[in-house]
Design brief:
Blueprint (H helix, E strand, L loop, with lengths): L7 H16 L9 H20 L6 H12 L5 H19 L5 H51 L1 H10 L3 E6 L4 E4 L1 H7 L3 H5 L14 H10 L5 E9 L5 E12 L5 E10 L1 H15 L9 H12 L6 E10 L1 H8 L1 H18 L5 E7 L2 E8 L3 H14 L4 E3 L2 E3 L2 E10 L5 H17 L4 E4 L2 H22 L3 E10 L5 E12 L3 E3 L1 H11 L2 H22 L10 E6 L1 H4 L4 H12 L6 E6 L8 H13 L2 E7 L16 E4 L14 H16 L3 E4 L5 H10 L3 E2 L10 H13 L1
Parallel strand pairs: 11-12, 14-16, 16-17, 17-18, 18-19, 19-20, 20-21
Antiparallel strand pairs: 1-2, 1-5, 3-4, 4-5, 6-8, 6-11, 7-8, 9-10, 13-14, 13-21, 14-15
Helix pairs in contact: 1-2, 1-4, 2-3, 2-5, 3-5, 4-5, 5-6, 5-10, 12-13, 16-17, 18-20
């Protein structure tokens, strides 16, 4: 069995070892591989830290790229091997237990930053070398001048032996002399070059200041200048150079000649362009990637007054199913085909398509009138996805959800626009998918608030921001308080008191409902114990039972029974004083495994209530196999009883449910009682207990205690 690294430092060392072994064979250095490893270790450590930083900063990638150049790993193959090494091993050895998808996304951005850092460091190193050559050439000016007066042989030795191209011209621009290196760069004879004038060497890519600097030099206003310049060769190809032009003066200081030093940078420029392309384009589909898209979007948002933008954020529906069933190779081919179709949809000026990652794509259109154009673009995308895609002999139907954001430039940042598009896309997906929706500021605000509540939930429980209100359960026969239902509330620092419907679904989604439900159960049972002690523990003066709601997630949690037993034993409350409410929809089609915990609790003496009965379309015959003792009739059946006369159909339905429940030895509780007439009608129909605003709204435990004392003294 091979030994595994013991900790993060060991894993970091292992990653650095793999990196150094990958690049050492193509490194031009006198260092040993172990010494190279020590040189790369700080960069590797920064890459690992960037994976886990709270705010991601790709600067670690740029630093790592510069470290390669400093270690003399300047061969393009060293960069390629480094990118492969990061892609394969950085997350494996430095990722830890983080979110794998987020770590992979950060790793990809670090690779792009590393390539950019490598190119920039290589460019700086080249410029430094060029400057050194230029300085040497300038220093050689004196030697050349002396050689002209002393010996032609010494001048020729310097002139012809130089590794860079050298040319001398008069102040009118006529070429007088060129060396062999310059002839080889241009691929021309000496006679052809000496017949040229430098003013003929214009190129469309010349920077505006190039010829301005030239004019200043020949007028004697400057001694030298350094630029990057392109030249056309006779065969039509382009020669890119780092050009340094210096002014040669006579003994009296008057301008006499101009000396040009040229270094061929064509191959280096092509490498930089390739690195730039790889850093800004998706390797799988060839589309612009997230980095390139953000550059274009920020440019569009910074456009002048009167300019607008339109953005379509596309996510494929059910793409995970393709990966899971047919494999990632098939999924990749599907993405390539989708990318080709999307590319054909955005061909007009100002339009582009990019892949953000995974199965997420974005299309951008710009111009003065994007309201209509963005809708048309979205329609073209949806139409392009209609035709099935053939993968491994299977015809796959592609569906997609699109979020559209359109507006004037200059009002929002790129991050805000993309967030709005993302929210809108998920709104389209939640509406069934295969459609597009237009961004709505109010819907965005609700989604952002919902996200804020979700992220605040874990710490809210730790900070004690939750509290419980209690609504009494009243016996319809004598009007006495028989118990109370515990209803949790959230006292949010910014939003005030939030009702359960605002945060319980979020707690269910995040799994926090389990610790929150355990807290509610314990607090409610403790309160029941406090009521019993305060009221003397008599059945006539204190709530006999506390009702606590259970969510579907809690039902499936393996610690439900043990937690309940421990809370009851710790507080000294009898199981019969506790009733757990479960919604009817949670038990539809429930198998024996799901019902087993409820049966164990029922056998202990804990009552189980079937909440919202009548809304889940359950089979009434299933009531016999459910371990319930109480039916809580949904308020929708009794709303008509608030007016006189009541709907006779509702009366018959309630009467039938009550009769069936009593025949099964089940008690019936009614929710939402708001009028005395409603309460009386329900009493006549045989309902056992009720709760609602007619008796009391949910409130603090002291209010329930007052109601209980009032019953005891009446």
């Amino acid at each position: 069995m091979s030994a595994q690294p013991d900790g993060p430092e060991d894993r970091l060392r292992r990653f650095t070892t793999i990196w150094s072994r990958a690049v050492f064979p193509v490194t031009s250095t006198s260092s040993t591989r172990a010494e190279l490893e020590e040189q790369l270790l700080p960069a590797a450590r920064r890459l690992g830290e960037a994976l886990h930083a709270r705010v991601f900063d790709p600067e670690a990638g740029r630093t790592a790229g510069a470290a390669l150049v400093e270690a003399h790993c300047t061969d393009p193959d060293a960069l390629s091997r480094t990118l492969d090494c990061l892609d394969s091993y950085l997350v494996l050895y430095c990722g830890g237990d983080g979110d794998c998808e987020d770590l992979r996304a950060r790793c990809a951005r670090l690779q792009h930053a590393l390539a950019a850092g490598f190119a920039e460091a290589l460019r700086r190193r080249t410029l430094a070398e060029q400057e050194a050559i230029a300085q040497a050439a300038l220093r050689a000016q004196g030697v050349v001048a002396q050689a002209l007066h002393a010996t032609e042989a010494r001048f020729r030795a310097v002139f012809e032996g130089a590794a860079i191209g050298i040319g001398i011209a008069d102040l009118e621009g006529n070429v007088l002399q060129v060396n062999g290196a310059l002839l080889r760069m241009f691929g021309q004879s000496e006679q052809a070059l000496r017949g040229r004038n430098v003013l003929q060497w214009t190129h469309p890519d010349d920077a505006p200041q190039v010829w301005k600097l030239y004019e200043e030099l020949v007028r004697g206003e400057r001694d030298h200048y350094h630029v990057e310049k392109a030249f056309y060769r006779p065969d039509g190809t382009v020669l890119w150079t780092n050009l340094t032009v210096s002014l040669l003066r006579d003994a009296d200081g008057n301008p006499q000649y101009q000396l040009a030093l040229m270094e061929d940078t064509t191959e280096r420029r092509l490498l930089n362009l390739r690195l730039r392309y790889e850093a800004t384009h998706d390797a799988l589909t060839g589309l612009p990637n997230r980095t390139f898209f953000f550059e274009r979007l920020e440019k569009a948002l910074a456009a002048g007054e009167g300019q607008r933008f339109g953005l379509c954020y596309l996510d494929l529906d059910g793409f995970k199913t393709v990966n899971d069933s047919l494999g990632h190779a098939a999924g990749d081919r599907l993405l390539v085909e989708v990318a080709d179709r999307l590319q054909s949809c955005a061909t007009a000026p100002g339009e582009m398509v990019a892949r953000l990652g995974g199965d997420e794509f974005v299309a951008l259109t710009t111009g003065p009138d994007t309201r209509r154009k963005v809708d048309e673009l979205a329609a073209r995308i949806m139409n392009a996805l209609l035709a099935p895609i053939s993968i491994d002999g299977r015809e796959l139907t592609v569906r997609g959800s699109i979020g559209i954001v359109e507006g004037p430039a200059g009002e929002r940042s790129a991050a805000e626009v993309l967030r709005s598009a993302d929210i809108t896309m998920y709104r389209a997906k939640s509406a069934g998918g295969n459609r597009f929706e237009v961004a709505d500021p109010e819907a965005d605000a609700r989604a952002i608030t919902r996200h804020g509540l979700t992220t605040a939930l874990p710490t809210a429980l730790e900070r004690g921001e939750f509290f419980i209100e209690y609504q009494p359960l009243v016996h319809l026969g004598d009007g006495s308080v028989r118990g109370a239902e515990a209803l949790v509330r959230w006292l949010h620092p910014q939003h005030g008191v939030l009702s359960p419907d605002r945060f319980i679904p979020l707690a269910e989604h995040t799994g926090l409902i389990v610790p929150l439900g355990r807290w509610v159960l314990e607090q409610s049972v403790r309160q029941a114990r406090a009521w019993q002690e305060r009221n003397g523990g008599t059945e006539a003066t204190g709530p006999l039972r506390i009702n606590v709601n259970l969510s579907p997630c809690q039902l499936t949690h393996p610690g439900l029974v043990q937690d309940t037993v421990e809370i009851l034993e710790r507080t000294g409350v009898e199981p019969s004083a506790l009733c757990l409410e479960v919604t009817e929809s949670a038990l539809i089609g429930a198998d024996d495994d799901l019902l087993k915990p409820l049966r164990r609790l029922a056998e202990m003496g804990v009552d189980i209530a079937l909440d919202d009965f009548g809304t889940g379309y359950s089979n009434l015959a299933n009531l016999r196999r459910l371990p319930v003792r109480v039916l809580k009739l949904d308020r929708s059946f009794t709303q008509s009883m608030q007016q006189f006369p009541a709907d006779p159909v509702d009366l018959k339905i309630v009467e039938g449910i009550v009769s069936l429940a009593h025949s099964l030895d089940l008690a019936v509780t009614v929710e939402g009682v708001e009028t005395g007439a409603q309460a009386e009608q329900l009493r006549i129909l045989g309902c056992d207990t009720a709760q609602g605003w007619y008796y009391a709204r949910p409130g603090p435990p002291e209010r329930l205690h007052e109601l209980t004392l009032a019953d005891a003294t009446s």
